[in-house]
Amino acid sequence: MHVARIMANNGHSQKDIAEKLGVCDRMVRKYLKADFGTRPRKRRVSILEPFYAFIDELLEDDPFINLVPVYERLQRRGYTGGMTIVRDYARKVRKRITTKAVRRYETEPGLQAQVDWKECGRWNIEGELIKLYAFVMVLGYSRKPFVLFTTNMKLSTVLKAHLLAFAWYGAVPREILYDNMKTAWQYVSGQWMVNPGLLKLASACGFTPRRCRVRRPQTKGKVERFIGYLAHNFLPRVAGEQATTLADLNDAVAAWLIDIDERQIGGLRTSRRQRFAEEKPLMLPWVAEAAPDVRHTEDVVVSAEGMITWQTNRYSVPAELIGEIVALKIDTVSNEAAIEHEGAVIRSMKLHRPRSRRIDRREEDTRSLRERWRRENASKSDRAAGQPPEVETETFQRLRGTAVETRHPAAYDNITECSA
Question: pTM, whole model, 2 decimals?
Answer without folding.
Answer: 0.69
